[in-house]
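REQUEST ID: PR-0412
SUBMITTED BY: lab tech R.K.
PRIORITY: routine
TASK: structure prediction, single protein chain
INPUT:
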Amino acid sequence: MTQNPEDQQSQPEVPSFVDAASPESTGPESTGPESTGQEPVPTPTDPVTASAPVVSAPTSTWVYTPAVALPESAANSASPAVKKAMIAGVISGLLAGLIGFTGASLIGTAPSPSISLPMTSGDTSPRADDSIAGIAQAVLPVVVSIDVSSSQGSGTGSGFVIRSTAKESFVLTNNHVVAGAGGTQKITVTFQDQTQANATIVGTDASYDLAVLRINRGNLPVAALGDSSDVVVGDATIAIGSPLGLSGTVTSGIVSALDRPVTAGDATDVSFISAIQTDAAINPGNSGGPLVNSRGEVIGVNSAIATTGSSLSGQSGSIGLGFAIPINQARRVATDLIETGSSTYPVIGVQLDMTYEGQGALIQSLVEGGPASKTSLAAGDVITKIDGVKVGNGTELVVRIRAKNPGDVVKLTLSDGSIIEVTLGSDQS
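STATUS: complete
OUTPUT:
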C-alpha cells in the first residue's frame, strides 16, 4: 500500500529583509534618531549611497506583534468620566469572576449523575433442532476422539458410535487412523464428557479406508445414519471431530461436489473413494469423524483434504476442499467388519494399464474366471464410460466400480461405441 505525500500548505510570504526608507523620510525635515529610534538614512549626496543604494542584510523576523507602550502623558490625560468608566468596568469584571467561581465550586462539589449503559441478558433458551447449534448438541455425544500410541510414535483421529449393546459398543473410523495398531500399540477412545475407554480393532478395510473399533462400554448413544444417495450439491453439512487434537470441534459448510475420485495411501495399500466434497473445514485429526446433514444424519466419513502444500509445522491445513466417504458405502463395509471381521469390494475382473495416457481406461489383461472373462471384453479395449458417465483414466474407473456393490450390473462403453454389461464380482479386502 502506498501513501501519498501530504499537500504542501501555502505559507504567507514573509520578507527576508527590512525595506529601505522612502526618500521622503530622508529630507531636511526628518527628525533625528532620538525621536524615531532608527538609524539615519544617508542622503543621495552621501558618497556611500551615491555610488550604490544601501540595502539592509536579510534578517529573521518573529511572527508576532510586540506590545505598544503608551506614553505616560497619554495615560494621565484621560478625563474623569473615562476614569470612572474604567473603574466601573474593572469592578464589574471582578464581580462576574467571583460569581462564576462560586458557581463552578458548587457544581464541582455536587454529586455527579450516575451513568448506566444498557445490557441485554444472555439468551439461554434452547436452540432450534435444525440449527447448527441444535444439530451439534444432538450429534456431539456420539463423536469420540481416538488416540493411538506406541513406542514409535502416536497419532490422533476421530470416530463415531454406530452400534451399542448392553455390554459393548462399536466405533467407525478411518483405516489410516489405526493403521498398524497392533502388538504393543494402544488405542484410547475419549468421549465428549472426557471419560476414556480402551479399544481394540474389529477389522479394517484399506481399499475403502475404513476401520471398526470395539470398546467394552454399553448403552451408548448411537449416530443416526442417513442416505448418501439423496445428497445433492448445495446441501448443508456439518463436520465434527478432533482437528489437531481439539476434541468436539464443529464446522459447517455445504456439499460442494459429488462423486469426486479420491485416492489415498501408498503403492501397497491404496484407497479408492467416490467422495462427497465439502467446504466445511476439515483438518488433520478430523479423519474418521462424521459429516452430518441438516437433519443431524451422518452422510459421510471425513477422510481426506486437498492442500496446496504444508504449513511450517509440517501439517497440511484446510483450504475448503474436504472429502468424505459416502455413508452408504461405509455402512456396508462396517456391517461386514462387525459380522465377519473382513469385507469385500466389487470388481469387474480386469487388469488395467495405469500408465495409459489416452482418454479412458485401457484393459491390459483379463482375470481368469472373473466377471469380464464371461463377456466379450478383451485385452486392448478402452473403457470410456460406466453407466453413461465418462471415465477419464484407470483410477476413475476403479473409483466408480468401488462405489457399487458386488452383484450390481454395470454398463461399460468402449471407445468404438459398443456397450457391454458386466455383473460385478467381489474380492476380499
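NOTES: The domain at 228-307+316-328 is CATH 2.40.10.10 (Thrombin, subunit H).
REVIEWED BY: pending
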